[in-house]
Specification:
The protein is of the alpha+beta class and 424 residues long. Among the domains are: 122 residues; 127 residues, Mannose-Binding Protein A, Chain A. It is built from six helices and eight strands, in the order H-H-H-H-E-E-H-E-H-E-E-E-E-E. It has a four-stranded antiparallel sheet with strand order 1-2-8-3, with helices on both faces. Helix 2 runs antiparallel to helix 3. It is elongated. Keywords: Disulfide bond, Lectin, Membrane, Transmembrane, Transmembrane helix. It comes from Labrus bergylta. This is C-type lectin domain family 4 member M-like. GO terms for molecular function: carbohydrate binding.
């Protein structure tokens, strides 16, 4: 829109109030339309130049605002407003020229932007192709990432294995260091030993020379021994014949010895039976004798036709010395072969030696009268165990059982005697 006819309207402002008001309204509308058109053109052409558009929008908005505010007071201040509008027109003319110049510049910029848009479209097409390629590459990278995860897991396991192996190698290195130190010590010892061997080598050389001389003498002796060997061979043959004859005789003696052993066993059994009968007869005889006297010497106690002696309270001794005391008193260590006798013997002291031992033969328990223990006896549980050469037997009052103990231990003792007065 051109501003060429605006001067005619402005020249007739003084003709009348009515015309002035009409011209003022027209001017306002025209100015507003011009501003709106210029603003729209500026928005369309300068889409990418936001800072410039915002600047012009602010100016025109201020102008419209000023025009709107002044519209209420124009009736009272027409002359003043006419002068102001004239100035505004001049300013608008200047701005119009500036806007025209700017429009030309914006046209050029639009053409440049159009060219740039075409380039951007081409670039966008290229980017689309690159995007597709990148998508394919991304899929490949995803697959590679999965493989890398598997590889990372394997590497983690391998790292742990290598750590364990490193620890084992460190331990092995420490062991090798210790072994190295030991080898150094051993090397030092071997060096010393080498010196000793060198000295021995010299001695061995001397000994070798002596042995060479001795070997020559041995050769002579060997020849003599060959002759002697021939003679000894004849003697050996004779001795072999004699040996065979002796073997036959030995086998016959073994058979005879076996027969004698069996016969001895039978005789031993018969002897034990006879000894047992003898003991029973002796007990019966003692019982008959005691029935005639019915008393024991002072200090002895009568029980079942036998006299028993308890060692004094607090006195202890070894098994051998205890038996010697009993023999000196005309008796022997007590031989409790029945439960009744065992109870009576155990009453005297808390512990007492009795006349049972395996001193003559380990594991063969014999009474002091020479008879073997023929039954299981009255042993404590787990006894006899022969711990520490336990060859003699003691009985305890609390348990009334036998226990094997070392003969050197010191205990009280109990003597036994047949007949009145403790005499056998």
């Amino acid at each position: 829109m051109s501003f060429g006819g605006d001067s005619r309207y402005l020249m007739t402002i003084d003709d009348g109030g009515k015309n002035e008001r009409s011209l003022s309204l027209v001017w306002r509308i025209g100015a507003a339309v011009v501003c709106l058109v210029l603003l729209l053109l500026t928005v369309i052409l300068v889409a990418h130049n936001t800072s410039a558009i915002n600047s012009w929008d602010a100016k025109y908005e201020d102008l419209i605002s000023n025009l709107t505010k002044d519209r209420g007071t124009r009736d009272k201040q027409d002359k003043t407003e006419s002068s102001s509008l004239t100035q505004t027109r001049d300013i608008a003319s200047v701005e119009r020229d500036a806007l025209r110049n700017e429009r030309e510049a914006l046209k050029e910029e639009r053409e440049a932007l159009t060219s740039e848009r075409n380039q951007l479209q081409n670039y966008s097409s290229s980017l689309t192709k690159d995007r597709d390629a990148l998508k394919d590459e991304r899929e490949a990278l995803k697959e590679e990432r999965g493989q890398l995860k598997i590889y990372s897991s394997n590497m983690t396991k391998e790292r742990d294995d290598l750590r364990d192996e490193r620890k084992a190698l460190r331990d092995e290195r420490a062991a090798l260091k210790n072994e190295r130190d030991q080898l150094k010590i051993q090397s030092s010892n071997l060096t010393e030993y080498k010196g000793v061997l060198k000295e021995e080598q010299g001695a061995i050389k001397d000994e070798r020379d002596a042995l060479a001389i001795e070997r020559a003498a041995l050769k002579v002796e060997r020849n003599n021994l060959k002759v002697l060997t021939f003679n000894l061979t004849k003697d050996r043959d004779t001795l072999i014949d004699e040996r065979d004859a002796l073997r036959i005789e030995r086998n016959q003696l073994k058979i005879h010895s076996s027969n004698l052993t069996k016969e001895m066993g039978i005789l031993q059994s018969k002897y034990n039976t006879v000894a047992l009968r003898r003991d029973r007869l002796q007990e019966e005889l003692n019982r008959l004798n005691l029935n005639q006297t019915a008393s024991c010497l002072p200090g002895w106690n009568l029980h079942n036709n036998k006299c028993y002696y308890y060692s004094p309270k607090g006195k202890t001794d070894t098994w051998e010395n205890s038996r010697a005391d009993c023999l000196a008193r005309g008796g022997d260590l007590a031989m409790p072969k029945t439960q009744d006798e065992l109870v009576f013997v155990s009453k005297g002291n808390s512990y007492s030696w009795i006349g049972l031992s395996d001193k003559l033969q380990e594991g063969v328990w014999q009474w002091v009268d020479g008879t073997d223990l023929e039954d299981l006896g009255f042993w404590k549980e787990g006894e006899p165990n022969d711990q520490g050469s336990e060859d003699c037997v003691e009985v305890s009052r609390s348990q009334v059982k036998w226990n094997d103990a070392p003969c050197r231990n010191k205990f009280p003792w109990t003597c036994e005697a047949f007949g009145p007065g403790g005499s056998n």
